[in-house]
Amino acid sequence: MQNLEAQPAINDRRQLLRAVAASTVGTTIEWYDFFLYNTAAALVFAKLFFPKSDPTAGLLSAFAIQFVGFAARPLGAFIFGHFGDRVGRKATLIVTLLTMGLASGLIGVLPTYAQVGLLGAGLLTLLRLLQGIAVGGEWGGSVLMSMEWGRGRRRGWLTSWPQWGVPAGLVLGNGALLILNSTLSESAFLSWGWRVPFLLSLVLVAVGLYIRLGVLETPLFARILEERRVETAPSLQVLIQQPREIVLGALVRVSEQAPFYIFTAFVLTYVVGTLKLTRGFALNGVLLAAVLSLFSIPFFGWLSDVVGRKRVYLAGVIVTGLWAFPYFWLLNSKASLLVLLAIVLSLIPHDMQYGPQAAFIAENFTGRLRYSGASIGYQLASIVAGGPAPLIAVALLAAYHTYVPIALYIVACAVISLIATVLMPDRSRVDLTREYDAERVPPEAVRRMTPAG
Questions:
Q1: What is the CB-side half-sphere exposure of residue 57 using CA atoms within 13 A?
Q2: Which terminal residue of the chain, N or C, has fewer Cβ atoms less than 10 Å from its own Cβ?
Q3: pTM beyond 0.85, yes or no
Q4: pLDDT tens across 290-324, in order?
Q5: 90: domain range?
Q6: Cα–Cα distance for residue pair 329/403, rounded to 1 Å
Q7: What's the CATH number where 252 sits?
Q8: How would DSSP label each residue in 81-127?
């Protein structure tokens, strides 16, 4: 088979730039919407939707709804992975963007407990579910849009740009809430100020949609269509043919994802509730950490092209485990400068993993199953890592009244990912145009491959 990655005529530079821009803008918007809930859950949702609960119970309820979004992400990966591997990357990404934007816009007009009682919390749960489904399908398509328009020697760097959307979305989401929090009174912020960033997502979605409509389908998927290698049920087939890669793809993320939501969501409640510092100070710290990530994520993606994905990833996993206790020591000093330093530096170990992570996971799935496999593996971590992390941290702090169990939880996450990373193949140099699992595909699976349409 001819190697598309070596053909400059097909890998048109202008289309590559459009693809990377469309992926980056799209993921930025998606994560802006997703992180808005995380921040609002820590700061206002417990008061607005569960006002009759005690503070800890209300916070746990708000984070429980947050977990619904995480639990829905594997479902979104399964659904959109199916269509991404059958219909195409571009069309699927347009649907995920619209789903996320509409769900977030509706959160901005939700009635609260004071207006409709628990119905407000029920509607919030439903919209959070839609957010999770949309994010579950977004990541895989965005990564493949960049990866499959690019060339092998730069795949780590190219796929780090969709990852860049995470800190960019965090900066936009936290920045919007920070501005409103600092300019409005407490009553105005709780009454209507928190709604503004959610409603703004409708404008951002319109911009993202315009950019994505101008991108062509990736040449690698076009070749799959041309050669009639499309699977009838890719999401099911990848579970049968590449289960090991799916499990490892989820487990390598544990040390990246669980600590991330402790460092960006739980820390807001810890700094305000336990350390008695201001909400604005906590938001500023997370905002500065996200700004630093805008530079470190592409850097570590580029570094993985130079020295290999696994080496960079392993370093990030180890640093995460080593950072757990010093992080809380700095926070508990209650010295503003040291607390700020802890918050800002907390995302560096995350970025060491997150920069090369997209390529590291996606390269392990063969072309006709890549959207489904990469998405399902990536999003399964949401159930075991990202979603429960703030809940676990809140519960541990309430039960033991000390940071130690939370730090040990972070260390345990690092140990899990360390083992999974060692077991994960490094396919940094693999030819993506080749169905490199062909020797493992049974004849009946080959017969099930059908022409698109």
A1: 5
A2: C
A3: no
A4: 899 999 999 999 999 999 999 999 999 999 999 99
A5: 9-424
A6: 9
A7: 1.20.1250.20
A8: HHHHHHT-HHHHHHHHHHHHHHHHHHHTT---HHHHTTHHHHHHHHH
